[in-house]
């Protein structure tokens, strides 16, 4: 039985209406609702964002959604092992051009970066991997390339 959301197959991708249209181009976005073969991720730039970042980061849509497909989750409240297994399969199955982890500065959020890094190791793929850390007041504290 598939673990993906039943609504995935009924909601098609949405093309941006203009160059400044940074709304979601796909649904769902919750990591836990996705399967491991996700057609909209093929040849995509993937943003994996901690849940809180969309509320904390200034101009989230403009700064982070542009040109990215997004999946969201919480490494503290959700099942980290399930995330690790799922991302290892996603990375193995899909041709992802770039991976960005957007997380908060709080220690528990660092688990998201660790999960993605280990999932990439398990997948056997080398994807350019970036991390952006947002402070609890919404400022960008650090942006760095981790791999690739």
Notable features of this structure?
five-stranded mixed sheet, alpha/beta, 5 strands
Written account of the structure:
- The protein has 148 residues and is α/β, with parallel strands linked by helices.
- The chain is built from four helices and five strands, in the order E-H-H-E-H-E-H-E-E.
- A five-stranded mixed β-sheet has the order 2-1-3-4-5.
- Helix 4 links the parallel strand 3 (98-104) and strand 4.
- Helix 3 packs across helix 4 (110-123).
- The chain is globular, with a radius of gyration of 14 Å.
Give me a quick take on this structure:
The chain is an alpha/beta fold. The chain has four helices and five strands.
Q: What gap, in angstroms, lies between the N and C termini? A: 35 Å
User: Helix/strand/pairing class, anyone?
Assistant: alpha/beta
Number of helices: 4
How much helix is in the residues? 25-40%
- Order of helices and strands, N to C? EHHEHEHEE
Number of strands: 5
Strand content: 15-25%
The coarse overall form would be globular
Mean pLDDT: 90
The largest pleated sheet is described as: 5 strands, mixed
Which stretches are poorly predicted, pLDDT < 50 over at least 5 residues?
none
**What order do the strands of the largest sheet run in, or round the barrel if closed?**
2-1-3-4-5
Gyration radius over CA: 14 Å
